[in-house]
Amino acid sequence: MNAIFPDRFRSSLLLLSCSLLAAPVDAMQFELGEIEGQFDSALALGVGVSTANPDKLQVAAANGNDGRRNYRSGDVFSTIFKGTHDLELKLDNLGVFVRGTYWYDTAQRDHSQRFKDIDDNNRKTSAKTAGFQLLDAFAYYLYDINGEPGSARLGKQVVNWGESIFIQGGLNVVNPFNQAALRRPGSEVKDALVPVNLLYVTQNINEALSFDAFYQLDWEQTQLDNCGTFFSANDFIPEGCESLDVGGRQVNLSTANRALAPFGVVMNEEGVRIPRAGDQDARNSGQWGLSIRWYVAPLDAEFGVYAANYHSRSPYLGTVSSPYYSNTGFAPQLCSNLGVPSAGCGAFLASSSGQTLAGALRMGTSQYLAQYPEDIRLYGATFSTTLRTGTALQGELSYRPNMPVQLNGTDVLQSLLNANGRSPLSEPGQRPTTDSTLFNGYRRKEVTQAQVSAMHSFGQVMGANQVLLVGEVGATYVGGLEGNNGPRYGRSGAYNNGELIDNSVCLSISNSPEYCNDEGFVTPFSWGYRMRATWSYSGVMQGLDLRPNLSWSHDVKGYSPGDGSAFNEGSRSVSLGLDATFMSKYSMSLSYTDYIDGTYGTRGDRDFVSIGVGATF
Q1: What HEC string does 363-410 produce?
Q2: Which of the residues 33, 229, 500, 585 has an alpha carbon 20 to 30 A from that of 170?
Q3: Of 397, 263, 398, 266, the residue nearest 330 (C-alpha)
Q4: What is the pLDDT of residue 414?
Q5: Where do the structural domains in the chain lie, given as residue ranges?
Q6: How high is the pLDDT of residue 18?
Q7: Residues 263-283: pLDDT tens digits?
Q8: 107, 79 Cβ separation under 8 angstroms
Q9: Which keywords belong to this entry (predicted)?
């Protein structure tokens, strides 16, 4: 626990107490002539506290360690005040809905951090320490055709697809995730998705058959955590976080800078800095979806089929090769910078030091970028029913014939060296072939995911009025993985190069030689499950309801692809929480989350406690 923790924690508790004392009023309903209106507000304050010290291995990962170096056990990583307001206006069958939010995180904005302060410059709005953001803003029209109801909505909105409850990677792809907002203390489920501009239509055909369709007008990307914040995964992909240092330092830093600085190469204690090129954003057009659902009365079940075309919301690491990738015209200047005579230049470049400097030159004059692949095709099917026991059962199957799968990031960077033996992507036929060439950091694969969830309510258990148990199990299959020294996919850069074709290189430069192996990469099959139990105690005191809860997550086998992939073998988490509501207006939550990493996980040192209070009116 650091010296500033007690004062900051006490001030946070004082703010929490003051927010509880602020008496809310009822939701404001009003009329403007024939227009009916309602204005709803929610105020919340949350505090997040780290309960684990940084993993030394993860701290050693130069491009993903700012958040770890900033916080130790007992540090407050967030003290945030947030307000959200909804306005709805209705006139007959027409309506408008607008929702906006604002926030201020004093722990991130007003306090210095242990390693690097949190910076808002050039960051996405939702990732900033304070700001205002318009969320939903759409108009809607309710109608009927031959007595069958329908609706149309136009504007910024959220559309939920599929039947998944916990496991990502299925059908619910219409809206990007807002990681930055969801991970703030006191956040709600509705904070998880970014509203996007689209046209959305739903229509009943008859009592059993209905459809819905959307056409997206703008492309939006996933909102990542700001670099240096507690949950940040890396320090170079989020917008404004543009520092990618690779390769370590195998030569004297002064010598390296003397040789490379005239070429514009930056080298520091953490390695060679690769500058960022302009990101490859997706286009706005070409994103659509259609689903058809029908109810089968004899089975008391609803079935659905889905089809969509969309662009990736998550970034992929790509590169642009150096102008000296195959061109050795740099040799005379490099030797001259070091005072090496022309006659000895060839021998120097063939030496170990010369090869290292040439590799650093190629790295430092290359570029990296975030790529957002387009035109991902998605097909799926769902079902939902209620069993005779009263258990709600639902599931979905999703299939993507051309899903982009991220190549191992370290292998992608190794390919910039134009040297054999460094990784599967360094071999002829895999690596870039020309100077200043874009290298896509992904390959398209067939990806299929299936998941089934069940929900059952038990009455009068452990003194509770009700116990709700929810569970979900899922599995992912990736077709077409090369294997046998072919390209590798996934695995965090924190685990170094992995086994190289010439593995002596990995063993010589790795911070953790035990990870110079061929494990932890995307596998053809992976699976896991999630569970959550909630006990409801109503009327504990007059107007007071309590809901203790317990959540468990386990990735049993294999490694699936994707940002924050669904399954990472051996990774588990447990969360204990207590939610309280008073007079259906005030709320308070307390939770503790413990991450238990698998061999190649990156969350094992991100355990935390979250406290939140709120009021709705």
Answers
A1: HHCCEEEEECCCCEEEEEEEEEEECCCCCEEEEEEEEEEEEEEEECHH
A2: 229
A3: 263
A4: 85
A5: 1-206
A6: 45
A7: 999 988 888 999 999 999 999
A8: yes
A9: Signal
Going by pLDDT thresholds of 50, 70 and 90, the confidence category of residue 349 is: very high
Question: What are the tens digits of pLDDT across the range 396-411?
Answer: 999 999 999 999 998 8
From the list 490, 507, 458, the residue with the least C-alpha distance to 598 is 490
Q: Which two tokens stand for residue 541?
A: 């005191």
Beta strands in 209-252 (DSSP E): 209-216, 244-247
Counting residues of the chain whose pLDDT is more than 70, the rounded percentage is 92
pLDDT digits (tens, 9 = 90+) for 498-527: 777 666 666 666 667 667 888 999 999 999
Distance of CA 70 to the CA centre of its chain: 20
| pLDDT bucket at 228, cuts 50 / 70 / 90 | very high
pTM, two decimals, is 0.92
Angle, CA 72 vertex, CA 69 and CA 78 arms, to 5°: 90
Q: How far is 179 from 202, CA to CA, in rounded Å?
A: 29
**Please, are residues 477 and 401 in contact by the beta-carbon 8 Å criterion?**
no
Query: Of all residues in the chain, what percent carry a pLDDT higher than 90?
Result: 74
Q: Is 122 left (phi over 0), alpha (psi -120 to 50) or beta?
A: left
DSSP assignment letter at 177: B
Q: Which residues contact 273 (CB under 8 A, 6 or more apart)?
A: 243, 244, 245, 265, 266, 267, 364
Instruction: Give the position of tokens 């956040």.
Output: 187
The partner residues of 412 in beta bridges, in order of sequence, read none
Task: Return the DSSP state at 106.
Answer: H
Q: What is the pLDDT of residue 67?
A: 87
How far lies 279's CA from each of 106, 261, 265, 370, in Å?
A: 31, 25, 21, 5
pLDDT of 303 over the 50 cut: yes
Q: Regarding predicted confidence, which is higher, 347 or 247?
A: 347
What angle, rounded to 10 degrees, do the helices at 352-364 and 253-260 form? 60
C-alpha to C-alpha distance for 201 and 289, rounded to whole angstroms: 11
Residue 599 above 70 pLDDT?
A: yes
| Residue matched to tokens 């004093």 | 106
C-alpha to C-alpha distance for 216 and 201, rounded to whole angstroms: 12
Query: How far is it, in rounded angstroms, from Cα 117 to Cα 69?
Result: 11
Q: Which pair of structure tokens corresponds to residue 460? A: 């009068």
Strand, helix or coil for residue 128: coil
| Spatial contact of 12 and 79, defined as CB atoms under 8 Å apart | yes
Please tell me the predicted confidence (pLDDT) of residue 511.
63
CB-neighbour burial class of residue 361 (10 A; exposed 0-12, middle 13-18, buried 19+): buried
Nearest-angstrom CA–CA distance, 545 and 148: 40
Buried b (16+ CB within 10 A) or exposed e, 222-235: bbbbbbbbbbbbbb
User: How far apart, in whole angstroms, are the C-alpha atoms of residue 104 and residue 188?
Assistant: 17
Q: What is the three-class DSSP state of 494?
A: helix
Residue type at position 1: M
Measured between its terminal Cα atoms, the distance across the chain in Å is: 37
Report the distance separating Cα 511 and Cα 503, nearest Å: 14
